[in-house]
Write a structure and sequence with these properties.
Rossmann fold, 8 strands, 10 helices, 39% helix
Length: 246
Amino acid sequence: MARASNDGIDLYYERVGNGDTVVFLPEAGLGAWSWGWQHDAVTGPYESLVVDPRGTGRSDPGGEYTVETLADDLEAVLRDADVRTAHLVGHGLGGAVALSYARRHNRARSLALVTTPAAGGVVDTDALERLFGDAWPEVAFSDAYVGIAPRDEIEGWRRLDDADTDARERLFDAYRAFDPGALYEITVPALVLGAIDSPVVPEPACETLAQGLPRGEYEAAEGRHLAHLEHSRAVNDRLLAFLDER
């Protein structure tokens, strides 16, 4: 457990394991719990570092909420942790932050972007908001989902880690405004996984992102918006193969 600071905002992160560092960045409003299945899969051969974005989990709220600011928050964390280079794994807004980070800073070795679009304008934030209501499993998982953890257990983690309404809306605004700029300038290897049935981000927008990245590769992933939980074994296998290639 550790804390970094950026412009007076305390940022909480946890790291465990050995080897090259893999950083996990969650979707807008979701806490670090949402990476639990990937975190466990990479820890051992890699060091896993999970960040609570500002306004989420045990990080402070307040200050400016833009994708660029969130990328600068990540730089503060990596500087505090004395991480020279890292593989960045982002979901949704977390993927947008990873892209911005790769443009603004120099520690990114690779990017793995889950259900991340080429621009924030295509994000259905009404559907994303439903991810925080009573019907959240309908946005998160397909009808075939049989459960990687009991629903009440997941809801307990969410009460502890997810952003409150004010911070969530500010994170949504940052996501809507996301513009990656010239994708050809982001030259690190990038794997883009697009959930085929996400109500938040259309799959073609993820493929467009991969096509615009000079070293991007695209694969469709079964499931809805939390496909990396619903089909964690398949996602973990692909993620580890990608990391091992690096």
